[in-house]
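[step 3/7] inverse_fold.run input=structure_tokens len=267
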């Protein structure tokens, strides 16, 4: 999901990509703080445990996905992995319910480029056809927000988010201000990607992260939980999906035809 968004930097030039991916790999001292029991729980939920590291209130797995301490003790609802190819669209076992529904988003920071990216990401979702029953709107009050976007710094990821619970979206997106100077379309793609996690999408190349992250990337969890193929999405590679795991500055990923098929099927 880069996600690595953490996004691993994925440059157009091979040497640039290699050095960026190295820079954003998970530091060893971060992964060492995760106990074997915690790794086992992460694996049981269907995520890669080897690169997991602790974050405030939980763990970051697979680059940009936040799992809370409570998440690790949840009993999975899905017991089989539904996968055909390596670059299809996938969802988690939990989705947003109560449709049609408008989700509210608040940005708590003051960084102009991130604020503009929040607006642009919302606009991408709201430009989907009228048959799409999940919309977004921006609000000024945290109390009124379903999803709160906040600034962070000194972290290893570009942005992070989690998955829905109890029929509601994940309520937090954290954006690393180190990347606030990136291209406006790239920032919008990052925010739309994280919002995708909040409503239940996993990475399109979840089973083959080398597709967007490079050959040394660690694949995501292949345990039998929480990676359900969305019918109608392709069995072959999808080079432009908004939910690919890695992105680099200057890349723009608006919803393509396959993304729209996935969004329409779920919402």
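[step 3/7] decode complete -> sequence:
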């Amino acid at each position: 999901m880069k996600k690595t968004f953490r996004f691993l930097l994925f440059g157009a030039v091979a040497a640039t990509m290699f050095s960026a991916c190295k820079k954003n790999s998970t530091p060893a001292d971060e992964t060492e703080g995760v106990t074997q029991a915690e790794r086992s729980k992460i694996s049981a939920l269907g995520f890669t445990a080897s690169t997991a590291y602790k974050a405030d209130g939980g763990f970051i797995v697979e680059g940009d996905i936040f799992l809370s301490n409570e998440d690790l003790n949840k009993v999975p609802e899905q017991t089989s992995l539904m996968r055909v190819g390596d670059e299809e669209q996938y969802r988690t076992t939990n989705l947003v319910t109560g449709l049609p529904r408008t989700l509210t988003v608040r940005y708590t920071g003051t960084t102009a480029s991130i604020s503009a990216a929040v607006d642009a990401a919302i606009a991408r979702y709201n430009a989907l056809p009228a048959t799409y029953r999940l919309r977004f709107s921006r609000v000024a009050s945290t109390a009124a927000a379903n999803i709160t976007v906040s600034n962070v710094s000194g972290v290893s990821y570009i942005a992070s988010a989690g998955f829905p619970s109890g029929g509601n979206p994940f309520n937090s997106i954290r954006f690393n201000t180190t990347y606030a100077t990136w291209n406006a379309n790239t920032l919008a793609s990052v925010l739309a990607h994280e919002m995708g996690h909040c409503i239940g999408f996993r990475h399109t190349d979840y089973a083959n992260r080398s597709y967007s992250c490079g050959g040394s990337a660690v694949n995501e969890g292949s345990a039998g939980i929480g990676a359900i193929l969305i019918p109608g999405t392709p069995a072959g590679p999808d080079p432009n999906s908004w939910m690919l795991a890695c992105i680099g500055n200057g890349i723009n990923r608006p919803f393509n035809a396959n993304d729209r098929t996935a969004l329409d099927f779920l919402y």
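[step 4/7] annotate
The first helix runs from residue 14 to 23.
Residues 14-266 form a domain with the Collagenase (Catalytic Domain) fold (CATH 3.40.390.10).
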